[in-house]
Design goal:
The complex is a heterodimer of chains A (about 240) and B (about 325). Chain A is built from twelve helices and no strands. By secondary structure, chain A is mostly helical. Chain A is globular. Chain B is an alpha/beta fold. Chain B is built from eleven helices and 14 strands. A six-stranded mixed beta sheet of chain B has the order 6-7-8-3-9-10, with helices on both faces. A four-stranded antiparallel beta sheet of chain B has the order 2-1-4-5. In chain B, helix 3 crosses helix 4 and helix 4 crosses helix 5. The longest helix of chain B has 14 residues. Classes of the chains: A mainly alpha (about 240), B alpha/beta (about 325). The interface between A and B is medium-sized, with 24 and 28 residues.
Chain lengths: ~240, ~325
């Protein structure tokens, strides 16, 4: 996987030429800024739980927009051909694209550090909780990007990739969170629902770093990247 | 350098390439010729390890496309059809990216970039975004990329498509210069291109190899002799009969659709070593048909191509 950093670098810099990425960035900052308003109240605990929880919902729709072009666009424009006929492995391409996209996600996240700075200025912040919140949101972002990348590997239409990824993320995040609030839910389904992204993420935003949660996010992300590599390989045989 | 054995590709139920075998010797420029949809690009994509063949195998520079895919790709420069490039990258930036993908260290990268930029006449656009370049320049960027790592084998898929006549001439000149140093396989559906630059041609039609050899050999293989065209004013049927009786003529064909309805054009196939022009002209004049043109036409590769591909299309094996 020695070529992955080269591909990641190209991917990251290509985001800065894409108007859609800037729109996503602006929307993300606007919405998380509004959510921060709830955290930034006199008398409220000096933490960013509202913003972090709200961010996960937001990322369900923002990440697909960032990840839709990763592979679908390469197929649509044909640039996949020079890429795969260079001496690179399919896994170089997948891992490179994943980290390029994750790097842009960190760029997206970076301005929210200002909110943390503001909180520290005006209150006694729980720094541990904020740090674990960031760790959690990065893990969630990585998982979401892996879902988006997988969808992007299956089609040459960016729209299809984005809608498929958003639908998958919606089913994995928002639907179980809603279902968990239903008192009539059976034991089995409650068990299933507790595996959902938002449930696992809640601990992070409270400042609890549970190794089970970390393993969950990393493992699911890795499985999705593996499947994406296989999807890419499969298209050679089509 | 390139050796292909029984390469076959099936897309679903469509047989795109059917047991294709050929050899490209070192240092030669070989034209891969065929009508659109004949399986040219599919074959090249299999050779460049972009697509996996359904059956059969191939080796490039001694490396097998299945088991040594990475070595094959390291030794190969490939210009895909339509030259897909990242529009937001600058020419230099793109070539640098490609060099990194090929694990070239910085000094080598610099040196080779300067070389290919000069060789492909890209000096004036090296800082320009690729998306702002004309088709001709983009083609050159693709070519520069395929030359960047100085590969032993170059595979170019329709390298002159979409270029203007001057650019076509320049590109052909460059390709000719590259022969000898590199082994080239280039696909095209333009015949004069093959006659102009290739040492050898492989004709593919309907997914099969229809013929291969030097352009001269191909012409000879069909015994496509020359033909004599006679244009005169007279009833078509009678002209045909009269000319068929001329000694030395083996076959007469009346060609239609040549403008003027009163005139007919007859194509005479002379027997080996016969010049039938004088005798045919005398016959026409004796009949009192006004004669407008007598012309000797030498066989072209084009005629060969049309024959071969038409036969293939009708499913006849040659």
């Amino acid at each position: 996987m020695t070529r992955a950093p080269t591909i990641a670098r190209r991917e990251l810099s290509s985001y800065f030429y894409s108007p859609i990425a800037y729109v996503a960035l602006a929307l993300f900052l606007l919405a998380s800024g509004v959510a921060f308003w709830d955290d930034f109240q006199p008398g409220a605990p000096a933490e960013m739980r509202h913003m972090f929880t709200w961010m996960v919902d937001l990322l369900v729709f923002i990440i697909p927009v960032l990840s839709m072009g990763l592979l679908a666009q390469e197929w649509a424009t044909g640039t996949i051909e020079p890429l795969l006929t260079a001496p690179v492995n399919d896994s170089d391409v997948v891992v490179g694209k994943f980290f390029g996209s994750l790097a842009f996600f960190l760029v997206l996240l970076a301005p929210t550090l200002l909110y943390a700075a503001l909180l520290t200025l005006y209150g006694h912040t729980d720094k541990g909780a904020i740090a674990s919140g960031y760790l959690g949101i990065i893990l969630v972002g990585a998982l979401f990007i892996a879902v988006g990348l997988f969808c992007s590997a299956l089609t040459r239409s960016q729209v299809v990739a984005a809608v498929a990824a958003a639908a998958a993320l919606f089913m994995a995040t928002i639907v179980p969170a809603w279902a968990a609030g239903q008192a009539t839910l059976g034991t089995f389904w409650r068990g299933v629902v507790n595996q959902c992204v938002l449930r696992r993420y809640e601990d992070f935003s409270k400042g609890i770093i549970d190794s089970g949660n970390i393993v969950f996010f990393i493992a699911v992300t890795a499985v999705l990247l593996f499947l994406t590599t296989k999807a890419l390989e499969m298209r050679r045989w089509a | 350098m390139i050796s292909v054995r029984e390469l076959t590709k099936v897309y679903g139920t469509v047989l795109a390439v059917d047991r294709v075998s050929f050899e490209v010797p070192k240092g030669l420029i070989v034209g891969f010729l065929g009508p659109n949809g004949a399986g040219k690009s599919t074959t090249l994509r299999m050779l460049t390890c972009f697509l996996a063949p359904t059956s059969g195998t191939a080796a490039i520079n001694g490396f097998n496309i299945f088991h040594q895919s990475e070595q094959v790709r390291s030794n190969l420069g490939y210009l895909p059809e339509n030259v897909p490039l990242y529009p937001e990258m600058r020419v230099e930036e793109y070539l640098d990216f490609r060099g990194r993908l090929r694990k070239m260290d910085r000094p080598t990268r610099r040196k080779r970039m300067d070389y290919v930029i000069e060789r492909c006449w890209l000096g004036t656009v090296r800082r320009r975004p690729i998306g702002h370049l004309s088709k001709g320049y983009r083609q050159r960027v693709g070519l520069a990329d395929s030359l960047l790592h100085n590969p032993a084998v170059l595979i170019l898929d329709e390298p002159t498509v979409g270029l203007d006549p001057t650019q076509i001439r320049e590109t052909r000149k460059l390709i000719k210069e590259l022969g000898g140093e590199h082994t080239l396989l280039l696909s095209t559906h333009i015949l004069p291109e093959v006659e102009a630059v290739c040492d050898m041609a492989i004709v593919i039609a309907g997914g099969r190899i229809a013929a291969q050899g030097t352009p001269e050999e191909l012409r000879a293989s069909r015994r496509l002799g020359s033909r004599v065209l006679i244009e005169c004013r007279g009833p078509a049927k009678e002209v045909e009969l009269a000319l068929a009786r001329v000694s030395g003529v083996s076959r007469v064909e009346i060609l239609n659709g040549h403008g003027d309805a009163a005139y007919v054009t007859a194509a005479l196939r002379p027997k080996e070593g016969c010049d039938v022009r004088e005798e045919a002209a005398r016959t026409v004049i004796q009949k009192g048909w006004p004669l407008r043109e007598v012309r000797l036409e030498h066989a072209t590769l084009e005629e060969f191509f049309v024959q071969v591909t038409a036969n293939q299309a009708m499913g006849r094996t040659e």
